[in-house]
């Protein structure tokens, strides 16, 4: 089973449409395809071939896209390196993936200098060689490999196939709709599935991508209000900053703007309501690298009724809770569908990723009577205290509901009496005392769940996709 | 490889959305699913089981939909009988398909009385039995079987799988977009792929269907102008009647209205322009029963530049011309993609439908330099005259361009001197003489292509989907 080459087909079918825009420049699908073919030739000249495994390290800019699309034409497997990682972390991924080539944006070359990298400037200057274009793409072909941020242990390299990406794009379209004039604002990293999946949707839908090198709340707010973009992906913390910009300018989203997709944990209802006031529908999503982006989404309309939920699965997907039959019972979240990775590479290649077709996420959650998913916690963050299970997210949610709190993070610390106890770190919006916040918690959750200590911070540790890193919090104690 | 049961999943994900509306009644997806489950139980009580082959004969009304959705829950294969056929034609299909059950709308029971049919009223009255719901549908599962209208020879029963229908729906969405509030007006027969594919899109997209028992130009025009519907499928001859209604009422399409999909041959540019004036984008399509609906479409914007073209393939599909490499060369049209039937049933089950993954359509056409498909003719209608190939559609197109001509049909008749010669039948808009029309032809096409005789008629012979039946024209001579 194959797909027609997405780049050629998209160029053939809607070559005149805008594919990518960056700052003041833009490229149509026909232009993108021409450039991608040229890059494919240049990469071939440098030795890259079909099925080569190629690690790429770059910032979110057009050249990164050209290189990736060139690789896709050649038919190689791309290991997407996270530019925020330290050299030893990059070394681990390059070695684990056994990448034959390391392609690097000149600015970042120091980070991978031990691996004989090919600079983007060298690719640019290469004279294209003949290559055999892949007219048909096998569904099982590995397009990308991403190392999971992995809250514990060694990162695992996740294979994402053409079918994974295609199913993900189609399922999203069946959920929120698509229109030929959609433009998706991408300020999440291209090397993460959040950003990479926007490129895949672009090719599959024939949709424009408005690319930012990094998140910019003010510019994003302006584009949302002027209607130059129709969709945006982000994590909760970015949302608040955008809303503030929209509100301060006394503006509202353009009627052309359709939705913000927000991942990385539940969004406070207060934000959703503020977004609504601004005319911005917010869809909360749950997904991971192993599911090539979102698996469930919560519609704006359900946000208040289903606080803390990640919604329902997309059309092609199924979600169930391991070992439970009743609504409300907590357990490991299992996922089934064509978006689920067939497996890992490198040292984890022997680890089975699916059991009887179901991905074991390691996350804990439940389904309510209506089938809405609630992710209670990442299993690895579970705090066990005096035999009771404590889920940090539950405590954070309570703290976040306090008007003085902007961000909250909770983790477990060892305790002689209880084994483990929760402690909290908070970033404030306005002045408040720790006692006041703890008293506030005490009103709403069982006493064993109330943090034993609460400290203030200027910021919380987050990874490149802005997910809270609770294991880092542990080091703060 | 499986899909989640489309009926259950759609009910789960958007149960509150409108699924079907008919006259003054309407049903949500949750209601439709409840009814379908009840019908599945009733059918089970009557002996229908998973993989039973069930022939269904009915008019386009909600009960027909209930029966079909019930069959889909049970997991049986539906042979879609055309209610306009005569009893011997129906007998052929029932026998060829070896249908175990014949389900019939009470009004039509006489037509299949020799086959021990189960009346819809008996299904309605049955007491539902327990049945095993199909939670997962195999991609290769046969959902529907349709006999091709086949311009010559015995009709062939075409298998349409879940994957065929899914790919068709997704490819259409990737072409024209989808939105959760779309409503597709269906006045083409449900037993044909044109109508049945609207139901499949409804389930896959979560889209409403506005069902008409039969085509009604006046009501259709009203709904298009009031915005109660967003899409409509039709053949060219219906388009003109709708446009007349819109024009006479000095109205225009609602901004909510998105597109008319028009199959069954090229639409005169004059119609496309009139439609544009009315705010109605018209997409001309090319497809067949073997491709589970459209394979190529021509956008409104290209209609004038590419007169007579059927456009470009949808995203997942490929089209090529057998044995040719150069643009403009005529030959048999070949189609590749997941929408292509895996094969026929009954007496044609041994006939290979694909050769190395390509469907041989029997239609003749060419691709221009930009890759636009032009269907020159159905191969079986080819007229060979003095060694020259004559394509009836080419002559019809010329006649249709004359302001006095509303419809035109051309076929070959035996001729002592030339083997075969073309003759024409014309339905007039305003008075005109045959000599005048033939002189008009002579100005535009080679003399051997000019019809040897031109007669006037009140209407031309068309099948249930309004396709011109040239083989019937032959009998008029």
From TrEMBL, chains A, B:
Residues 15-344 form the AMP-dependent synthetase/ligase domain. GO terms for molecular function: o-succinylbenzoate-CoA ligase activity. Residues 394-467 form the AMP-binding enzyme C-terminal domain. It catalyses: 2-succinylbenzoate + ATP + CoA = 2-succinylbenzoyl-CoA + AMP + diphosphate. Pathway: Quinol/quinone metabolism; 1,4-dihydroxy-2-naphthoate biosynthesis; 1,4-dihydroxy-2-naphthoate from chorismate: step 5/7; Quinol/quinone metabolism; menaquinone biosynthesis. It comes from the Bacteria. Its EC number is 6.2.1.26. Keywords: ATP-binding, Ligase, Menaquinone biosynthesis, Nucleotide-binding. Converts 2-succinylbenzoate (OSB) to 2-succinylbenzoyl-CoA (OSB-CoA). Belongs to the ATP-dependent AMP-binding enzyme family. MenE subfamily. This is 2-succinylbenzoate--CoA ligase. The lineage of its organism: Bacteria, Bacillati, Bacillota, Bacilli, Bacillales.
